[in-house]
Amino acid sequence: MGRKRSNVAIEVERQEQYERGQRIKHIREDELKMTKTQLANKIGTSSQFLGLVEDGKGNLVYYSLRKLREVSGHSSDYILFGVDDDSISKTKKLLKNHSEEEIVEALGVIEKLSLFIKKR
């Protein structure tokens, strides 16, 4: 049998879902200046379901998330987790002139640095 999730894990998941809904609402209202119906039509869902998502009571399916990413210009990382789009863009620019081998080597250094900092 699978392990039960702790109350803390459930609460963290609920909080993340609420925050994700608020990000989507912010994108819709403040950036895209759209109604729920307008955005729902663009991303392939109903306005009622979009309202549930914005209230933290539902999650977009992959197709709708992909469409929201296209419509808004935000990364999936930003929409789902709140990861700063600028950081992703800056990182891509910094890494574009390096080979995959160099990037893998650098990630190894970052991992060691992370472990070093964690031990302190």
Short description:
By secondary structure, this protein is mainly α. It is 74% helix and 0% strand.
Highlighted features:
120 residues, 434 Repressor (Amino-terminal Domain), mainly alpha, 7 helices, flat, 0% strand, 2 domains
Please specify the SSE layout and strand pairing.
Layout: H1 7-31, H2 36-43, H3 47-54, H4 62-72, H5 76-81, H6 85-95, H7 100-119
Helix pairs in contact: 2-3
Explain this structure.
The structure is a single chain. With 120 residues, the protein is an all-alpha fold. The protein has two domains: 1-83, lambda repressor-like DNA-binding domains (434 Repressor (Amino-terminal Domain)); 84-120. Helix content is 74%, strand content 0%. It has helices spanning 7-31, 36-43, 47-54, 62-72, 76-81, 85-95, 100-119. The protein starts with 6 loop residues before the first helix and ends with a helix.
CATH topology of the largest domain: 434 Repressor (Amino-terminal Domain)
Helix content: over 70%
The whole-angstrom Rg is: 18 Å
Major beta-sheet overview: none
Discrete helix count:
7
CATH superfamily of the largest domain: lambda repressor-like DNA-binding domains
Main CATH class of the largest domain: Mainly Alpha
Order of helices and strands: HHHHHHH
Q: Strand tally, please? A: 0
Integer tally of domains: 2
Cα shape: flat
CATH 2nd-level architecture of the largest domain: Orthogonal Bundle
Mean pLDDT figure: 91
Give the strand content: under 5%
